[in-house]
């Protein structure tokens, strides 16, 4: 798989994963009464929204898009750090998005 395609799919997958996990954790926090709603919603749904909006913005404003993707990826790492796999995917997304595009 070439690098732009890998970057696109990993970034999209991470953004959607963050939003889905954020919604699930927010529902769990509300129904169980454990608290932490703003943490789960803010870090996961907020981070996922930033990642997805960065994907949209990167076609017109590449630096703004990269910044949104990097900030959103790192926001989600706060809540998913215990999984070990998701933070590695987030780091890969950041590295792939920071690299300059190659002209083949």
Automatic annotation (TrEMBL):
Keywords: Membrane, Transmembrane, Transmembrane helix. The keyword Transmembrane helix applies. The keyword Membrane applies. The chain crosses the membrane at residues 39-57, 69-98. It comes from the Bacteria. This is DUF4064 domain-containing protein.
């Amino acid at each position: 798989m070439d690098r732009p395609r890998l970057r696109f799919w990993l970034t999209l997958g991470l953004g959607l994963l963050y939003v889905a996990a954020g919604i699930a954790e927010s529902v769990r926090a509300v129904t169980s009464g454990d608290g932490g709603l703003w943490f789960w919603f803010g870090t996961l749904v907020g981070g996922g929204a930033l990642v997805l909006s960065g994907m949209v913005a990167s076609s017109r404003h590449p630096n703004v898009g990269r910044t949104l993707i990097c900030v959103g990826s790192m926001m989600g790492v706060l809540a998913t750090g215990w999984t070990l796999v998701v933070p590695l995917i987030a780091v890969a997304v950041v590295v792939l998005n920071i690299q300059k595009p190659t002209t083949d």
